[in-house]
Amino acid sequence: xxxxxxxxxxxxARAGRVRRLLLAGSSELNGLDPRATPGLPRNxxxxxxxxxxxxxxxxxxxxxxxxxxxxxxxxxxxxVDRRRLLLxxxxxxxGGKDGTVRSVVGSMDPLGMHLKAFxxxxxxxxxxxxxxxxxxxxxxxxxxxxxxxxxxxxxLAVRVKDLAPKSVxxxxxxxxxxxxxxxxxxxxxxxxxxxxxxxxxxAERLLARLDDPSKRWKFSPADLDDRDHWxxxxxxxxxxxxxxxxxxxxxxxxxxxxxxxxxxVANLLLAHLDDMRPTYPExxxxxxxxxxxxxxxxxxxxxxxxxxxxxxxxx
Length: 315
Ligand code: ADP
Known about the structure:
By secondary structure, this protein is of the alpha/beta class. It has one domain (5-302): Rossmann fold, CATH 3.40.50.300. It is 50% helix and 10% strand. It has a five-stranded parallel β-sheet with strand order 2-3-1-4-5, sandwiched between helices. The longest helix has 28 residues, at 50-77. The relative contact order is 0.19. The chain binds adenosine-5'-diphosphate. The site of adenosine-5'-diphosphate has 13 residues, from α6.
C-alpha cells in the first residue's frame, strides 16, 4: 500500500468522480439498480476478492479522512473555524446504516465524532416542533456528525404510516429546506446519503436475522409491516430526493453489495471533507522559551534524589 502524494491526489480525484456519479438525479428509484457499482476502478487487482479489496481501500480512504478530520477539529479548538460536517444516513430497514457507520466512520477518530440515531419521537419530542430534536443533536464546531435516520423520517415514516395529516407532512419539505439552508450558512456541510437496497435483498437480510440466533435481537416484527408498504416508501423517498435537494444534494448509493456501499460512502465523505480544505491552525507559541522551560523541568526532576523519595511503608 503506497500513500505518497500522487496516490493521495488519485484517491481524491476518484472520490470527486464517485460523488458526481452518485448525485441523485431523478425520483425514479425503481430505475436505479441496487447492485450497480458506479465509479468502481477498472484496474482493481484480479487476484483479490471485492470484499478484501474494499476493506483495504476503505482503510486507505480512512487515513485521508482522519487527517482532514483532525485538522478541522484542531481549527475549531483554536477558535478559528466553526465548520463541521454532517452525514445523514437514510434507508429502509436492513438498508445497512449501522454497517456503514461501523466501517466508514470507524476509520476516523471517535473523539471527533458525534453520532445520533433517531427512533420514534419520545413524548417530550412530540411536544415540540419536529426539527427541535434534530437541532439539539447537531455536531459541535469541528466535529463530524452522523445521523442514523433523521428529520426525513418526518416525511417518510410519518407519511407512510399516516402518523400526521397530509396537510402537515406536506409542509415539512419546505421547512426542511429552510432549516438545511440555515445550517449550510452556519458552516455545516451536509452529506445526505440514501442507501438503496432491493426488495429481494431486504428479504434475505431479514431472513438472516431470523436464522442466526446472534442476530435475532435485531429483528422487529414491525419491520415486516413496513415491508408491506415497500412501494409507498419508495414513492416517499422519491419525493424526498425531488423536493429536498436544494440546500444540500442527495446521493443515492446502491447498497445491495455491502463492500461497494462502504467504499462509496467513504468516497463521498472524502470528496466533501477535501473540499473544505481544512489546514492546521497557526499557533502563536513562544516555542523556544517553552522548550527551555521544559528543559528546566527536566533538570529539576533529575535532581530529585533519595531525599525526595516517599517514606518507606511501615513493615
Ligand atoms: P433502526 O431500524 O434504524 O435500526 P430502530 O429499530 O430503533 O432503529 O427503528 C427506528 C424506527 O423509528 C423506524 O421504524 C423509524 O421509522 C422510526 N422513526 C424514526 N423517526 C421517526 C419519526 N420522526 N416519526 C415516526 N417514526 C420514526
